[in-house]
Amino acid sequence: MSAGNDAANNANKQLRRILIIAYGRDADADSRVASLILERLRERSIADSWWLTLIEDAALRLEHALDLRPNDLAVFIDTHLHGKAPFEFMEIPSDQEAPILPVADTVIPGDLLHALATIGRQGTLPPSFRLTLPLPSDESTEDITPSVDASITAAVDFLEGLLGNTSNEHWRSETND
């Protein structure tokens, strides 16, 4: 890569605000996975960047639409019992019809995007992506299995790579839809 491309990538990074939200149920295996991903991201030097916001919560809440509002890109990190190893990365369609308030107790990323459109971003929503890691098959264990730990490591390395080039096109090219 040439020095000109490095400068362009650095300027691109500095002008774009990025939100990463990791969520999982309290005291469950998915919560431990979310915690570990953000903990490991915070150990990387990129985590000190003013343009990067890292949030961990037990569940997505409509209030997170306010966290999403000032950002240019977003990643929602969760786990799924039938997730593919080491992880899946896909764009969340923002043109889905959604109720103003979700009808279920569980809020999903599409609900937040719809709430954000409702509270006024002039119809523009940040491109948003979902990073899903496989959930440990035995949620009762307190330990993270070696396969889940490998998925966490791969996901953190992947996210750090994404943060090195924050163009929408680059992020979309990295999806495995």
Number of helices: 6
Strand order of the largest sheet: 2-1-3-5-4
Q: First CA to last CA: what distance?
A: 28 Å
CATH architecture: 3-Layer(aba) Sandwich
Mean pLDDT: 78
Q: Which CATH C-level class is it?
A: Alpha Beta
Q: Which H/E pattern describes the elements?
A: HEHEHEEHEHH
> What is the helix fraction of residues, given as a range?
25-40%
Strand content: 15-25%
Name of the CATH superfamily: HybD-like
Major beta sheet, specifics? 5 strands, mixed
> What's the CATH topology name?
Rossmann fold
What is the 3D form?
A: globular
Task: Report what the structure shows.
It comes from Congregibacter brevis. This protein is α/β, with parallel strands linked by helices. It has a single domain, classed as 3-Layer(aba) Sandwich (Rossmann fold). Helices cover 38% and strands 18% of the residues. The chain contains six helices and five strands, in the order αβαβαββαβαα. It is globular, with a radius of gyration of 16 Å. The N terminus is likely disordered.
Provide tags for this entry.
5-stranded mixed sheet; 6 helices; alpha/beta; globular; 177 residues
